[in-house]
Specification:
mainly alpha; Arc Repressor Mutant, subunit A
């Protein structure tokens, strides 16, 4: 959920622009995210320098970088760390089958493909796609 909420919050901030800070409560309401959990996610994103945060009545959050320079891979690594499907992908000596394992080979290939996709997809891409999907939904309901 952290990655999902983090991406939604960053897309929301990108849609809002960088002119004024957006309050957590506003992001939470628009995105359907529990505010207390969103606060935790935003704190992590702030510590990773993906957003700037300011407290107080005129406070809130803004993107710290251009949305085209924030990839889904960055967000995933910040919020979940480097997770692997199988331990043997990072520690092959931990499994006696690693050197001749078809399963390891397939999962490694899968992880490489996912990493390539996440590294090439930015918050800017997600914001653009979100606009397209929203526009399509609105045109269908009219």
């Amino acid at each position: 959920m952290k990655v999902d909420y983090g991406v939604r919050a960053l897309v929301d901030l990108a849609q809002s622009g960088t002119s004024r800070p957006v309050q957590t409560a506003d992001i939470a309401a628009r995105q359907g995210i529990p505010e207390s959990y969103l606060n935790q996610v935003l704190t992590i994103l702030h510590k990773a320098s993906l957003i700037k945060s300011r407290r107080g009545p005129h406070g809130g959050h803004v993107l710290a970088r251009d949305p085209s320079n924030i990839t889904l891979a960055m967000i995933m690594n910040v919020l979940e760390g480097n997770t692997h499907i199988l331990d043997c992908l990072v520690e092959p000596d931990g499994c006696m089958h690693s050197q001749a394992c078809a399963q390891r080979e397939i999962w490694s290939s899968f992880e490489e493909s996912v990493e390539k996709l996440l590294s090439s997809t930015t918050i800017s891409d997600m914001t653009k796609r979100q606009k397209e999907l929203t526009a399509n939904r609105l045109s269908v309901s009219l």
